[in-house]
Each structure stands twice: as C-alpha cells, then as structure tokens.
Amino acid sequence: MRAARSIAVLLGVIALGIGAVALLRAGDDPAVGGAAGPAATDPVDSRRNHVPFTPSGDALVDPDLIISGGPPPDGIPPIDDPKFLSPDEVGFLTANEPVLSVVVDDEAKAYPLRIMMWHEIVNDEIGGSPVTVTYCPLCNTGIAFRRPVVDGDLLDFGTSGRLYNSNLVMYDRQTETYWSQATGQAILGDLVGMELEFVPAQVVSWGDWRATYPGGRVLSQDTGWDRAYGQNPYQGYDSPDNDRPFLFVGTPDPRLVATTRVLGVSVGSSAIAIPYEELVATARDGASVAEAEVGGSPVVVLWKEGTASALDQAEIAASRDVGSATAYDPRSGGVLLRFAPEGGGFVDMQTGSRWDIFGRAVSGPLEGTQLEALPAVDHFWFSWAAFFPETEIYGA
What we know:
The protein is globular. The chain has a 5-stranded antiparallel beta sheet with strand order 1-10-11-12-13, with no helix packed on it. A 5-stranded mixed beta sheet has the order 2-16-4-3-15. A 4-stranded antiparallel beta sheet has the order 5-6-7-14. The protein is mainly beta. It has 5 helices and 30 strands. The longest helix has 24 residues, at 2-25. It folds into 2 domains: 2-29 and 50-219, no CATH class; 261-393, Rieske Iron-sulfur Protein.
C-alpha cells in the first residue's frame, strides 16, 4: 500500500512539476499563469536577457551535476524593486500562512512564501544592509544572505534556471557566477569558492510574526508580475510518502524519507538535522524543545504549532499545520539556559522567564533578553543530507 501511494505521489509530483515549469516558463509573458486581474507588465530591467549561459572558469562541483530546471535565466523572475506594507495594511494573509522572517539591526521584514515560491529571490536592503532573500520550493529552503561588494560592484542575484541537488542555483548579474543557495558558495565561474554571509531567516506563521513585529514591513503582492499568489503549484510535493524528489540526481539518503522536514544546523564541519516529526512527537501544549551540541557549541531548537506547509494543498492557507522551528544559542549572560515547553510557549529552568518562538524573553527576570539566532535552515531531508552527508540526525 505504501509503495502504491509513493508511486501515485511521484507521478503526481512529476505532472505538477512539469506544469509548474510550464507556468514558470511564462515568466517571459507576465500575463500567463497569473491570478485573475489585469496583466502585469515586464519590469524594465536591462540586466534581464533570459539567454541561457554557462559560466566559464573553475568549478567547485562537477558541472555535469548542475542541471537545467526548465526556465531560462530569470525566467522565474526575481523581485529587484520590492514594495512593502505595514502589517495593518496586509489583508491577503491568513494567520497560519508561512512567512520568511529576516531581522537586521532591529529592522524586521516578512517575505510571504506565497510570493517567494513564484519569484525565489528578492534583492533588498534591511537595516541599511544589502541582502538577498531566497526560497527554493523544491528543497523548502528559505535563506537570506548579505550581498557583497566585488571589485567595487554590489552584487545582485537572479535565478539561473539551473539546479544542483534539486536546489536553486543563483547567479550574480555582475560576473554571471553560479551560486548554490543551500551553501551560499560560488560553485562555477569567476568567483568560485567565495562564500556569502548567512543572515538568520526563520519560517514562521504570519499570525506570530504580526504579533511580534507590529512595526515591521511585509513584502507586497504588488510585484509588477501577475502570479497566482496563495496558490501552490507544487501541490502534494511534501507528502510523507514522497521519496523521489523532483529533478534530484542520485539516490536520497535512506535514513529518512526524502521529503521529511528537518531543521538543519551546521557549525564548522559538524551538522545535525532535527526532524520535525521528532519535535511534534515530544510536543506539549503545542510547543516542543530540542537541545543539542553541534561542533562543540550548544544549540536549542524551539518548535511551535500553527504554521501551514507552503507545499501541501493547492491553497496554502488550507494546507496542514507543520509548525515552525527556530534555532538559538541558549547562552545568556554567560549562563547556559535549559528550556521546556509550557503553555504554548517556552520557559527556562534557571530563571522561570517565559520565551517566544523568536527567542525573546517576554516575561520574568530576563524579560527583554534576545537569544542569538543561528543561521539554521529548513530543508527537506534529501536536500540537507546531499549537502551535509555526514550529518547527525537528532533522536536517531
């Protein structure tokens, strides 16, 4: 029975993937594949030429493993001039919808996955720092980076139309070097070997984000493109029975089902994957805690229910609740704190202070304290294991 379900899911994913590629190819015609309403016009951008290319120069990985995903460069159109709304102006999100939260120097921005899955890259600025915010739906990876200056030029990024380990391959428009989204490394071209600086980014529910950052900014659906925001073109992709990820070359690590959701944390050469199913299994009052050590450093992972999958049902808002997991350094003021779930939130054993999913002490002796967020990344298991093959699995 399980095998039959797996085959059915695989066939469905392939069909949907092909359909998604067809839709995303419509990036050359912004009026195709969009939501009802007036057709958007292609934003004028002299850098966008949609001509396939392969960077010259050295390679960090086997170039034969960097494969076409279907669309041409920027055929999945990045957002280069993002517009933002205040939380009070947002009427298109339900409380359970997932958003990618990025905070730099006390400026908080939310990037709804309903928008990100159609664009994958936003070139932006947060807290005065140039950043690129990214999301790869095939790997469920939401990652933010600081944009570096190279030879006097500030890099900005586009979608190359290529995949490596089924993961988004970005390119910078200044040198046309290929970059792996999962690692932030330049993997082919003039800048090969260079690494982007990760900025912690967390997938959380819109309701939790809005309550925490009422003065923050939210990416607007006014993107200049006509897309079916709120619709999921990868319906069923994250089914628990899907063990054949789309456009993945090779055999997924068999230790877990390929599309098992994990929160991946790496420190130096050490890595650990915390399966969401482990967090759900130990949850109390809709919250859970996992404590680990990675590369000799303590890590605490907080999980809270209430966040929908972006890759389950046709409408994201109707998708199943997978919750959200975030990772922090549990040390505060030189003290290693131990946490436990309580009342839908978290409490530390040392002071009895209460904490939220954003690592903030909201009451008690440590009220106002902020834990240091770690650049942990949501992944599907097949993706995390492909990039970190020696990873540990929490609870295994």
